[in-house]
Amino acid sequence: xxxxxxxxxxxxxxxxxxxxxxxxxxxxxxxxxxxxxxxxxxxxxxxxxxxxxxxxxxxxxxxxxxxxxxxxxxxxxxxxxxxxxxxxxxxxxxxxxxxxxxxxxxxxxxxxxxxxxxxxxxxxxxxxxxxxxxxxxxxxxxxxxxxxxxxxxxxxxxxxxxxxxxxxxxxxxxxxxxxxxxxxxxxxxxxxxxxxxxxxxxxxxxxxxxxxxxxxxxxxxxxxxxxxxxxxxxxxxxxxxxxxxxxxxxxxxxxxxxxxxxxxxxxxxxxxxxxxxxxxxxxxxxx
Length: 287
What we know:
The chain is α+β, with helices and mostly antiparallel strands and 287 residues long. The chain has a domain at 140-286: Alpha-Beta Complex (Toxin - Anthrax Protective Antigen, domain 1). It contains 1 helix and 15 strands; from the N terminus they run αβββββββββββββββ. The longest helix has 67 residues, at 2-68.
């Protein structure tokens, strides 16, 4: 019997050793995986922090553009950041990237900022109360419409549709340019419409004359009243109209369309304190 028990004991001992070795391997593997998870978590935490600060920095940059009335990052819009798909104009934010878009809502202007770093995304929003059509922010609000047809007058543009692009412009001063140049970044070079709305500040009450010089058609309204009619298909042409205005802010709107060929739009004024026809300065516009 002892002869048989001895091999059995040796076999059991061998099995126990194998089990112990397997358990040690599992413990070591668990330690390695735990360390890898800790590393991944550390990387993710760093990426999350950088994405958050990128989003916060984007909001601050957008507000600065709105307050200064200037497109500082060169993406074609005031208040938006890195919103043209061109990486060369994006601000440097270390390893993180940011994109800020802008929209008009009831009672204010909303900035939406998304910071990105690796797999991490952080989104922040800010609303500037009172900056929607109330004269709170420099510049005019611009809405662009990519028309699929061949418009020959302003009425052919579907102005009630959602615009294909929006932004802010400081003034309306685009001399005639070639038909190969888009009117806005990423936009077409023909068959489009553009609408500019906001407020114009009149420094001294009296009789004012307004001018639109455009290729193709344009019209100008103040306080909802049509002042200049320069509609239709034509080369760069100027038309004007006169209106009596009181001192202070007045509602302002210009619509413009382009069919084909060269295009351009310049809006000027003359009145009390402005003796000669002058392109309306950026300081006169808010929205």
